[in-house]
Amino acid sequence: MASKGIRRRGEKWEVRVTCGYRRDGRPRTVSRTARTEKEAEELRVRLLAEMGRMPTMGDPLTLDAYFWGIFLPRVEATTTRANRDFYSSAYRTHVSPALGALDVAEVSFARVQAWASGLPAASAPAYVRCLRAVLRAAWADGLLPEEPMRQRLRLPRRDGAPKEVWTAEEAAECLRRVRGEDIEPLVLVMLGAGLSASEARARDWADLGEGCLSVSVGSAYTGRDGIKGPKCGRRWRTAPVLPQCAERLEVLRRACGGEGPICVNRRGARMGPGTTPRRWAALFAEGGALEGMRRIEMNRLRATHETLMQQAGVSDSLNAAIHGHSQKVAYSNYLRPAEGAYEAARAVGEVVGSGHEAGPNLHFV
After folding, report:
1. Bridge partners, residue 59, by sequence
2. What confidence tens digit (pLDDT) does each residue in 221-260 have?
């Protein structure tokens, strides 16, 4: 005979457990279904235990209600505007349409996996990161019985050519051509020290060391947050500047008196994040200083510097420290192996495939 709270309905068994009261004063009831009577008995015991640990279980709280009413206000009070905009945009466009109407406790791993499988390959990790943050917060608030998304999700595979970087010859040609341009100081610190565009915009001449052979990085300039602190501890650093770039920076510093931002607009104010991409694009237009050169995005100057440093023999750990990120981030977002590396790898493959040891003519670039 079935226990109290368990009822057979056709081929399935319904389990209804009541424990305490909801915030609206009504009895707190949770219903689930099981395939067999034995599973129903086990489910009833588990639900009673979970409701004892989770005082809010059984309350009508959807994922949408939790995100907009609890999670986002908390984010707004504790993080940057950029993070707040990321969470609200990612949730509104990609999480809410698929999962927002579900009760928080009903967002199972199977549903999350089905949702993640349909995301755009390039941006799937960012949207998963948003949902993971929301569910972890819900778990910390006692709305979920166990820590969510601990299992590994299978995301859509990213297929695409690696982003471009310049060769050493192209980088040298760029430095020669941009002399005298208002954006030249930014190019010098990005190609010469591996700073990102936002870090370069926030630099003052006072941040450059003696002879401009080093640059201190402790802030960034973005369109959403203005001048802000670095997004992680690794970004606090002092980066060496390549000598040929340092010499030119020293000339420019002396010419302007060594005070103020390194790059200014026509009004003499710090050049902003809305202006620098346009000025960079204008250099490649007809009549621009870089007309005819292979075009890369401005932030790929940083990737160019990191790739050239690796090719020069700088260790991966030191290279990552200079650029203020982990080795994993360096390989996934910045480094672009040179053709010589592909040739060396191909040669190794041929040697291994033929069953012979590497001979003296096998060289690594």
Report:
1. none
2. 988 778 888 777 778 899 999 999 999 999 999 999 989 9
